Automatic annotation (TrEMBL):
This is NAD(P)-dependent dehydrogenase, short-chain alcohol dehydrogenase family. Belongs to the short-chain dehydrogenases/reductases (SDR) family. It comes from Loktanella atrilutea. InterPro entries: NAD(P)-bd_dom_sf, SDR_fam. Residues 1-20 are annotated as: Disordered. The keyword Hydrolase does not apply. One of its GO terms (molecular function) is oxidoreductase activity, acting on CH-OH group of donors.
Amino acid sequence: MTDAPHIPAQHQDSMPADEYKMDPAPDYMPRHPGVGKLTGKVALITGGDSGIGRAVSVLFAREGAKVAIAYLNEDKDAEETRRLVEAEGSEALLIAGDLGVKEHATDAVEKTVARFGQLDILINNAAMQWIDEDLTELSEERLRRTMDSNVMSYFFCTQAALPHLKEGACIVNTTSVNAFKGNDSLIAYSTTRGASLAFSRSMASNLVDKGIRVNAVAPGPVWTPFIPGSMPADMVEDFGSSSPMGRAGQPWEIATAFLFLASSDGSFFTGQTLHPNGGMIVGA
């Protein structure tokens, strides 16, 4: 079992938060040499600048994919992810914009295709979360921001991508352990993750005759900018220590699930969900 690094109390007054400010830094680097599982492929990864998205971007690059990274406004994190992708010998395209706005989602897809000439893999991963323990105090503005980022962006990006996705292409959507167990302090977020799960299953059936696979990944507690950006400092300290494995997951441990589903290794998977959650739930 991987040793758990101590996570000190910390908080950032922004959502999305910045990975470069986190202590300790999330661990995103792949553990194995690439073997060309995604050679010749182009992937658009939303929320690809940091957290799980960064780990997926780097791993896909190591496996031979060219990567378009769509993100909101975290330019410093995005530039570092581009550097990491290029260090793997691949190409990266950075696309800033709010994917909860349909025009921006369409723009992200069109820029990807214009740059690389194709689109084979769509990773819908961009999201936001806030603590909301009292539903009566959840503002309409925050609720709509959560829905726009975590649900509408998935619809908009998928709508824009479908004309470019050919037989053999795939979509992988990020959901969450909270879609399965609920979370009384992340009510809006958990609701959106339930929506992304249903979206994945519905689109899998919708696209199976076209030879396009759609799956989901449902992480448990993972050390990403979500955590200091959404939780008070005292909740961040030793984050994940109450999980069955006694620690939070690291982004690299989640990225491998995305690679499996996006590569030919997962060619018989559609409508399915992988659960890298450290034992938070079993048998889902």
